[in-house]
Design goal:
Length: about 280
């Protein structure tokens, strides 16, 4: 018989799955027990574990792990949207990265996921007017992960950055929901102007490795940017662009390029989510 006092708000299948994965990982590799207990199993919630992991990665002689943990805990307690975004990013990473087989992996090992979550902390602080602290986090993310995202940039949910070497996202950039990008992507400006100067990336866009999108231009929903392209002009929805400078070379080929992750210039096949059914 079901417990009538069960609070459904406390049911967390994502966190339950992470904990089970951590327990299984300890059985398979006992030497990982201490790390997995400290990083996962000692924490009551997903956001507690995430705050711990980020504080451990970003701590330095200038700011301790304990202080960073307090900052992260405070942000997660007051900003529910950032926790929801972190969950969406986690699921997106496992769904789209063939090298990610468990939810546990991005949380503990993937610098792309960790860098985005640290950016989200900085963005929340930026919106609170705590700009120097946000700049400090930006600096530490760049030093630790090789990812430079300005805390004022606006990024939607379900972002997956694969490998994440040398990612640069500028101050006035906007990234929509369910976007995927690979290493060495730049969302930059075209000069030293100080106003709105960075790209606006629509929902469901796939940006290939080494692509540069420059200037205050719009990249339409569900479009694809081929690896190594330099995009200087707006891209309509559902198109594929390639080249230097990039030109339209065809249709995007499917409804969700960022989910299928097909970077060839032929049509991409649909892909069922690992979490469907």
């Amino acid at each position: 018989m079901a417990n009538p006092n069960l609070n459904l708000a406390h049911v967390d299948p994502v966190w339950d799955r992470i904990c089970k994965e951590a327990e299984n990982a300890i059985l398979e590799e006992p030497l990982m027990g201490s790390l997995l207990h400290q990083g996962v199993l000692h924490h009551p919630t997903f956001q507690d574990a995430l705050a711990y992991r980020l504080s451990m990665k970003l701590a330095s002689s200038e700011m301790s792990e304990q202080l960073l943990r307090e900052i992260a805990d405070d942000v997660y307690e007051t900003d529910e949207d950032i926790v929801a975004a972190a969950r969406a990013d986690l699921v997106a990473t496992v769904e789209r990265d063939p090298a990610a087989h468990r939810l546990l992996q991005p949380l503990l090992y993937h610098k792309g996921y960790q860098a985005v979550q640290a950016y989200r902390l900085g963005h929340s602080l930026w919106n609170q007017g705590r700009k120097d602290l946000a700049y400090f986090l930006q600096m530490r993310v760049s030093e630790t992960f090789g990812v430079d995202i300005h805390p004022a940039a606006r990024i939607g949910r379900g972002l997956m950055i694969d490998h994440a070497h040398s990612i640069v996202i500028g101050e006035t950039a906007v990234v929509g929901d369910n976007v995927s990008m690979l290493h060495s992507v730049t969302l930059g400006g075209t000069g030293k102007e100080e106003e709105d100067r960075h790209p606006k990336i629509g929902d469901g866009v796939l940006i290939g490795a080494g692509a540069k999108v420059l200037g205050n231009i719009r990249i339409g929903n569900r479009s694809r940017i081929a690896a190594g392209s330099v995009v200087l002009h707006e891209v309509p929805c559902c198109k594929t662009v390639a080249g230097v400078p990039a030109k339209i070379v065809g249709e995007a080929g499917c409804d969700q390029p960022s989910v299928s992750m097909d970077q060839l210039l032929n049509k991409c096949a649909g892909q069922q989510s690992k979490y469907e059914g």
